[in-house]
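sry for the spam today, last one i promise. struct tokens for design, 186 residues
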């Protein structure tokens, strides 16, 4: 499906959960190529194939979400490597997305057991992308950190997950985990 948005052709993604477009080619419309790129990224994520996910990222990619607010380049790729490695029961679904030649978006959901507590999590995420050179240059995920904290951390998260102090503690622990993961990779 296509729609016209201010002169740019937007392609609506045809999932949930399965790549439906033909492989990308150099002559393909950039909007169609970006749709295929998003589908490739999430199909790889659903297989926990972090290397294929990383291949979708521009070398200078910028990533942010409420837990990892400012990752760049290989650090962003290593975050996905860490999450895929740890997410033994990770299930990913994606839907309601679109892309044009410059940007795109998708809604995705993750179900997994949080390794820090053993508690089940069902996280609902909205992702926005900017593309450059046929790759994802900027990736911003947004989700309700308080809801996530309530699931992942239990009572403490439900009661205090909205506070800046708990948000900072979650981010600090995530940063420490990523640094430890990266130090083991080198």
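last one done:
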């Amino acid at each position: 499906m296509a729609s016209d948005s201010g002169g740019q052709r937007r392609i609506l993604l045809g999932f949930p959960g399965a790549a439906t477009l033909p492989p990308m080619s150099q002559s393909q419309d950039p909007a169609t190529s970006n749709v295929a790129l998003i589908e490739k990224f999430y199909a790889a994520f659903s297989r926990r194939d972090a290397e294929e996910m990383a291949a979708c990222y521009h070398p200078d990619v910028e990533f942010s979400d409420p837990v990892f607010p400012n990752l760049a380049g290989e650090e962003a790729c290593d975050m996905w490597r860490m999450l895929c490695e740890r997410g033994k029961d990770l299930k990913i679904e994606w839907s309601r997305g679109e892309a044009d030649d410059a940007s795109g978006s998708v809604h995705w959901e993750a179900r997994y057991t949080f390794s820090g507590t053993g508690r089940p999590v069902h996280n609902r995420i909205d992702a926005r992308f900017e593309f450059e050179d046929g790759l994802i240059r900027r990736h911003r995920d947004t989700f309700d950190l308080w809801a996530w904290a309530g699931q992942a951390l239990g009572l403490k998260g439900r009661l205090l997950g909205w506070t800046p102090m708990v948000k900072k503690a979650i981010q600090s622990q995530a940063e420490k985990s990523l640094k430890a993961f990266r130090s083991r990779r080198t």
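The two ends are 44 Å apart (CA to CA). ok im logging off now
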